Amino acid sequence: MPFTPQRIDRVTVLVGERAGKYPHGNSLLVGGGEETVVVDPSMTLARDPAARPDADWVLNSHCHEDHVAGNHLYPDVPWRLHEADLPGIRSVDGIMAIYGFDAATDAAFRPVVVEQFHFTPRADAIAFRDGEVFELGGGVRIRVIHTPGHTRGHSCFHVEPDDVLYLGDIDLSSFGPYYGDAWSSLEDFERTLARVRAIEARWYATFHHIGLLEGRAAFVEHLDRFAAVITRRETALLAFLAEPRSQGEIAAHRFVYRPGDAVAFADAVERRSMSQHLARLALQGRVDEIEPGRWRARA
Q: Among the four 30, 41, 65, 279, which has the fewest Cβ within 10 Å?
């Protein structure tokens, strides 16, 4: 068995390889009296198809390569995603549009999505919306909470009666929030962080890193540390802009990834992420575009 099951009651966290560190993840299995649902089938599940748990349908928190890497193991059951991310699962072009990479990065990452992450298009995937409730029988239900920012359709799921809030890629890691795609939004992510902070649950589960946390106090502590990365990035950017800098120089400096991290799409993510910070800082009157594409912090 490639994953490590961590069972609460009706909910089992399928802890992935390397504790769910990317490209792996921690899937969820929710068993009701009538139906069983697998949430975000991970690459770990795909490592050993014979060990994959049975499920009546697949529920995805959003359409990113690592969260749909095991969907192909369930070709004969329905797949469900939020309506805003549904175009991503319908074709390779659809999921690549979510990233919004330049032509060279797209050409390099596209075969990775297909060959390493087993991306399988599904034209008949079913859309869900915020607030929708899935009844699995025996009092087991999953409520959708739309939490955009990471992608347009990113969603969390509150599972009852186990009182588990599945956070998807609000992963509470030291890396911090990821809003580096074309379909990402810094401001939406910040609103999402405020929304989930107000949700009380007994258990909190993430797709990466943390896995499973018990208790609101532990959750809030981790969430506040996670959210603080946004401020830290913005503060570092302002300091860097004490001298005029181009967007290329900003991307090369690395505010999201560490310098030297071997990430093929790092430059694209840095540009997209920091351009959102620049736009906000400009509106606040804290930076000026002194010439096209060059920025400096106000004294």
A: 279
Whole-prediction pTM = 0.97
Q: Give every CB contact of residue 282 below 8 A, 6+ residues apart in sequence.
A: 288, 289
Pairwise CA distance, residues 228 & 166, whole Å: 21
Answer positive or negative: Cα dihedral of 127, 48, 205, 115: negative
Q: In the chain, what percentage of residues exceed pLDDT 90?
A: 95
pLDDT at residue 2 in the model = 85
Cα-based torsion angle of the residue sequence 279, 172, 94, 83 in order, rounded to the nearest 10 degrees: -100
Other C-beta atoms within 10 Å of 5: how many?
11
Closest CA to 185 of 148, 141, 218, 159: 148
Q: Which residues pair with 126 in a beta bridge?
A: 80
Mean pLDDT of the chain: 97
Q: What is the pLDDT of residues 136-158, one digit of tens each?
A: 999 999 999 999 999 999 999 99
Residues 6+ apart with CB under 8 A from 202: 162, 163, 164, 214, 215
* Span 258-271, average pLDDT: 91
